[in-house]
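Hi everyone, sorry if this is the wrong subforum. Our group has a chain we'd like a structural model of before ordering constructs, and none of us has done structure prediction before. Sequence below.
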Amino acid sequence: MWPPRRIVLESLLSVVLATLVAGTEALRDGGAVRIVAVALAAGLLLPLRRVLPGTVLLVAVAASFPFGGFALLVPVASWSGGRRIDGVGRATATFALAYVLDFGLDLSQELPRVSPAVLVIVAMVTLVATIVPGLAGRYWSQRRTLLDTLREYNAQLLRERAMIAGQARMRERQRIAQDMHDSLGHQLALISVHTGALEVDRELTGRQREAVGVLREASVGAMHELREVVGLLRDGTPVPGDGATPPAVASGAPTPPALEAMGEEDAKAPSRGVAGIERLVEASRSAGTAVELRRSGEVRPLAPTAGHAAYRIAQEGLTNAHKHAPGASITIELRYEPDSLVVEVANGPVPETADDGRSVVSGGQGLTGLRERARLVGGMVHVGSTADGGFRLAGVLPYTAPEPGATSSSPGDETATFVDPTGDFRQQLATGSLGEADPVIDGNGSPKELARAMSTQKRSSGTAIGCGVAALLAVLLVAGLLVGAAFLTTELNKAMIDPKEYAAVTVGRSETAVRKQLPDGSAIMTDGLDKGAPPVPEGAKCLSLNSSELGSSWEKEPVFRFCFKDGKLIEKKSFEVTS
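Answer:
Right subforum, don't worry. Here is the predicted structure as tokens:
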């Protein structure tokens, strides 16, 4: 089914050409019935060129002989045939037949006034009307086909490049995960072992033992978070406790009490959602910091990704407060609004007694990461100073889960990934282990679009040859038109006069004076002007010339005739002959 736009354009083109055909038939003095019938036939025949291009071209050429208006359909049918006739051989045969048929019919209308000049003119006109539009249409169609193929191939290359880049990112993430597993995991395990052993030392005071316990819990929590990050870097899922296996256990040595305690803590991994914020507050309080936790509103569940983001906001706020405002009081507020959870961490000004000379290491990436994490779940993060000189970090997190297909960095999200879904090669290739997925190119070494382009190599070569032939024909056509125009001008000067010149000639003047005033009439255009002419006076020789005016009808041609006898002009007549 054609789209509405094509239907409108086809209908408009059919109406315009049918009107022109009807006008042409009216100039040829056709009857009303004939005019309507020919116009209707032309309007109905034109849309068929999209289905039967070769047939419509031959019918239009053949119908232009009895009905001259069909000649207007020939260039349109030729253009359409050049675009839609499949195969070089079939197209060549169709256009050759159309050219021979058109040339033969046009030449038959010139009989018996056939001369080399007439042959050249008829051949050039037939070439322009029948062959040139077909060549132009075929060139345009093949050029568009090649451009479409190149666009498809370029799109395939872009997709492959995105997949290769995604695969490179995945491998780099695996390498980073392995480095973190081998270095940080080992060091954190050693810290846990030594702090656990130190915690049971009887020589420590209660305050020291409490501080060591805080360190041990912090190291265990760091190991849990390291496992989550390593799991996400590897394949988007948390990794079991392989990253925190202490060297003593790996070597088969007896497990010390501190390590057993660490294992129990590992089995009771703290929550990374809103519920884990209270544990963060307890850890900060045990370190000697005044932390207040407030809750307001009706508690509502959050999506896992939003809950994890809330935990990270509270954790980052506490970390920044410990770093940059040691000794200052901290307030964490969880406000359950109607549409979102507001997590706010605010600290007061730095006490004067605090040690401002301590060295604080800051990567400057925490707040940036929080903003990105909140954005991925549809929320936002705000930071700024408070009125009393402190600092405030707040996040707004919606209750609803993010849209399907959105990226997430939650460790519990099975679809979590650090790349966009459109660029994640795992969603475009079959599931399998890394390095064992399907190849990004076909088995023949070429993508589908390239294979298609290679299969049309012969057609492309034919297009190049066709373009060269079309260019050569265009050059010959221009040269022929220039020669034909010069020839036609010369012939017109030899065979045509103006009615004023005819009126200026008077009967009785000498033949020599009159012939000097008039063209010699030795042109092909004067051939056949005696057809249907009045009888020539007895013993006279006549000179017939064409008139520069149009005849009374399409098929009538006005003629001026001058007859001489005994060296004088004895008669001049104006009449019309059938062309």
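For your construct planning: The beta strands are 291-296, 330-336, 340-347, 380-385, 391-398, 496-497, 541-547, 556-565, 568-578. Residues 116-199 form the longest helix (84 residues).
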